[in-house]
Design goal:
Elements: E1 9-10, H1 16-41, H2 46-74, E2 86-87, H3 95-98, H4 103-127, H5 131-158, H6 161-193, H7 195-205, H8 208-233, H9 244-263, H10 271-296, H11 301-324
Parallel strand pairs: 1-2
Length: 325
């Protein structure tokens, strides 16, 4: 059963025992999150996985210290109190939202977790008037700050410059194979292949609404086709190109975007205004493709520009000639 705002306790109303119980459950949750990070990274980034294993072990040690403190002050029975039971307490993103993050994003998420916890306890300690509670919150803040320093030390010990550089290069390569390459193929297909039908329709009918409908149909149809083709032709297991769903999504969406870019101007009723804007959009699309090829695929910019712009110009010319004829 979920907790709405009205059913949650305010942090300011918690007893010292409840604050301690909340800290214990939070440490348990963070240890699980770090182990989940480690499990997801172990196959491709074993050194980073070891860092998160160490961070989880550190959380376990702090949790045990907090449990020992609770036993000495309040006894063996720890109240069941979790983050979602307390209004205003710092939250953690669900693990399923972080599973598909890149390596650097996971590292940033871990730093944010530790920093956020430490900051919260500092602010909470500053607000309380009770000396014992203030000391407890200060101790928790110091413990969380210690986690952050320990994580930095683990990274320094386990991720030397060569290891970290190697993992970063592998992460970049995986990003390019899974997202950039399929997305670029989709953008090129959507931008170029829809030029002929859209501009042929435009010059044949000089009806902006009809042209828009043709462009919309061509873009969406091409996006669906490219998405399914990319996802179906390679499961990524042998090629190492990553999840077929991600690649299909990148390819399909970018294909549709590429076509819609020069179809949307035809929502403007005036034919020549719409056509002029559409031509400008095509120019921007083609140079954007050349820039992406140069930045991520290391294709010389002039060669990429020549290939893309020349190819696009030929398809555009074909559409205009067919429609104008």
């Amino acid at each position: 059963m979920g907790f709405n705002i009205s059913s949650r306790k305010r942090f300011a109303d918690l007893t010292e025992q409840e604050v301690l119980a909340l800290a214990i459950s939070s440490e348990e949750d963070d240890a699980r999150i770090y182990r989940t990070f480690a499990q997801g990274l172990r196959a491709e980034y074993p050194a980073s996985a070891s860092v998160f294993d160490g961070m989880a072990a550190e959380e376990d040690r702090h949790r045990q210290r907090l449990i020992d403190l609770h036993v000495s002050r309040f006894g063996d029975v720890i109240p069941l109190l979790r983050r979602e039971h307390v209004a205003g307490f710092y939250a953690r993103r669900p693990v399923w939202l972080t599973e598909n993050l890149g390596l650097e994003r996971i590292r940033d998420e871990a730093r944010a977790m530790e920093h956020g916890a430490a900051e919260f306890y500092v602010r909470a300690a500053a607000r309380t008037q009770d000396a014992a509670t203030r000391k407890l919150l200060g101790d928790l803040a110091a413990a969380e700050a210690g986690h952050e320093r320990h994580a930095e030390g683990l990274e320094a010990d386990l991720l030397g410059p060569e290891v970290r550089d190697g993992e970063d290069k592998a992460a970049r390569r995986q990003f390019i194979l899974t997202w950039v390459q399929p997305g670029l193929a989709g953008l090129m297909d959507g931008s170029v292949s829809t030029l002929a039908p859209i501009f042929a329709t435009a010059f044949a009918t000089q009806n902006t609404w009809t042209t828009f409908l043709v462009g919309l149909a061509a873009s969406v149809g091409a996006g669906i086709s490219m998405g399914f083709t990319e996802a179906a032709h390679d499961d990524g297991v042998l090629s190492g190109r990553g999840s077929p769903f991600k690649r299909g999504l990148a390819s399909g969406v970018m294909t549709a975007v590429g076509g819609l870019g020069h179809a949307l101007p035809y929502l403007i009723p005036d034919f020549w205004t719409a056509t002029t804007i559409a031509m400008v959009v095509v120019f921007v699309e083609l140079w954007t493709i050349a820039w992406i090829q140069n930045k991520f695929m290391e294709t010389p910019f002039l060669r990429a520009a020549l290939q893309v712009v020349l190819g696009g110009a030929l398809v555009f010319a074909a559409g205009v000639l067919i429609g104008g004829g």
